[in-house]
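Could someone model nicotinamide-adenine-dinucleotide with this protein?
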Amino acid sequence: MIIGVPTEVKSDEYRVALLPVGVEELIARGHQVLIQSAAGVGSGVTDEDYLQCGAELCQTADEVFERADMIIKVKEPQPDEYAKVRPGQILFTYFHFAASRDLTDGMLASGSTCIAYETLRDEQGRLPLLTPMSEVAGRMSIQEGAKYLEKPQMGRGILLSGVPGVAPAHITILGGGVVGANAAKIAAGFGADVAILDVNLDRLRYLDDVMPANVDCLYSDRHTILEQLTRADLVIGAVLIPGAKAPRLVRAEDLKRMKPGSVVIDVAVDQGGCIETTRPTTHRDPTYIIDDVVHYCVANMPGAVGRTSTFALCNATLPWVIRIAGGGLMESVKASAPLRSAVNIYQGKVVHQPVADAFGLPC
Ligand code: NAD
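Reply:
Sure, complex below.
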């Protein structure tokens, strides 16, 4: 199979969908790999690195799209790319179709087969191609929180760890899933005083077992959330109800309970956010202030640490790329329930019920 990797064109996107090691693995299995020149630069991978592993460089995205049987990407195709996608071509990337009718129509019109990272569900019911980005965002949330608590960034002027004689910051984490647990781990490492809230008691028991002593695992109810807001220097929003908008756990009027200069990092912004005052921001303009509370609500946090994110993503996607390429699409999909769950569009027809439901399309 010919596998093509175009340069990402979405703004602030520095990741690339395949590393040189992936090129090596695919070529060893008899495939051919086309990389658009400079596709890896944002992640610190040079054209030379790819060439040394046997990739063929293409100067333009058009050439990659024209020649490849399967395109692997990071972000969903952008409007400029829709017309480049060919009938019968396989696209393997994040799509989030339900969020965009234009993208759905563009891919339906292309006649391609779209396999979405975000709906690939493994035998244990997990979403293994979303997990690495939640790990990145969770860990990064504390790094960003630490930065915006600094006075020049309009924060309270608090050092997360405190110092001998001065108490550390109090960090409240709403949601103890992948984002929340990774945030708690880093926050605890800083020596902060951490509370992690969840409604899943089994999850709380697990977290209580594995987290260090400076992390309290608390049941998430309105009373506890309000009590936490009065104490918190930093609040991390990390809840998810799969397939639904995030629940609004912090209402606009609750912000008045928070200390001036405290910081909210709403990682769940991509599902609408769990703080009522959340609105999506970008890496170029990441924060805004309401009621003296600094809000950071960047919807693609992993993009800022493109190199780490690329490696984390490719570690997770490469086995699936190899599987799709190896067996031929139909055989691979027949043999693998996770791959079946990831096919959203098959040769120009919606085959994933939630996408059909989102737009009233046949499935
Ligand atoms: P997850 O499913 O692993 O964890 C979500 C947790 O929220 C679960 O443990 C669940 O029990 C808990 N929860 C549900 N309702 C709750 C409530 N009322 N109170 C407290 N906890 C509650 O999900 P995740 O992978 O950790 O992702 C969390 C969010 O972060 C998602 O919306 C995801 O899309 C988002 N995310 C954003 C970025 C970004 O760049 N902004 C990056 C990665 C992930």
